[in-house]
């Protein structure tokens, strides 16, 4: 059975992402492991061990009680979406969030990580958020990032951002597996600057793969790379963006550009980041 890790802080962004985790679990016949990680505060009572232990006990008890209260809430969300049959287990731990996520991915052989992300509010902030980006860098699991304002809808059209190179062919095959589960169409898109030469080395292989699948290949020459991609997402009613992990910095830039140009369209669709 495929395993989906769902780290949550019970914020609105993470609860919204939980619906995607449920739908994914139902589609791939998988199970969900929820993870809530909290910090033990640093208290200046190190010379009084008894007092320090009492404070730690109170913090752990408080977090346990909060988590215990939230579990039925997650179950109700599953029931409201007709997913009460989904197997869900829950983990509460303290320490560093990223370290704990990476450890459970390894220990439980996790296939997907579904994370809610908060969008940028200024050009200095990144779209994916620090935690999501660090998880992408630190693990081989596929990371499914759900933006804060992204409301669940059926995945019918998937945009795969690519440069049509050999590395992306391997990633495309994983995207095809995902698209097959949801019976979704894949649009592969490369936006290049007009002076840039086409990458013809693997063109024949790309066309061969596309011929046998529900895939359309696109190459657009334009200096406004980010703007063209944003327009493509809007005009083609894209439901999910997929990318090779090494493209993530570009996607952060893409979101920043959409803010700086004050476009009506924003990157508010889920993003599937596939590791190298």
Q: What secondary-structure arrangement, pairings included, does this model have?
A:
Layout: E1 3-7, H1 12-28, E2 31-38, H2 49-80, E3 88-94, H3 97-108, E4 112-117, H4 130-138, E5 142-147, E6 157-161, H5 166-182, E7 185-192, H6 203-211, E8 215-221, H7 225-235, E9 240-244, H8 248-260, E10 271-274
Parallel strand pairs: 1-2, 1-4, 2-3, 4-5, 6-7, 6-9, 7-8, 9-10
Antiparallel strand pairs: 5-10
Helix pairs in contact: 3-4, 7-8
Please give a structural write-up:
The structure is a single chain. The chain is α/β, with parallel strands linked by helices and 276 residues long. It is built from eight helices and ten strands. It has helices at 12-28, 49-80, 97-108, 130-138, 166-182, 203-211, 225-235, 248-260; strands spanning 3-7, 31-38, 88-94, 112-117, 142-147, 157-161, 185-192, 215-221, 240-244, 271-274. A ten-stranded mixed β-sheet has the order 3-2-1-4-5-10-9-6-7-8, sandwiched between helices. Helix 1 (12-28) links the parallel strand 1 and strand 2 (31-38). Helix 7 packs across helix 8. The radius of gyration is 21 Å and the shape is elongated. The relative contact order is 0.14. Residues 54-59, 120-128 and 257-266 have low confidence and may be disordered.
Descriptors:
single chain; about 280 residues; alpha/beta; ten-stranded mixed β-sheet; 8 helices
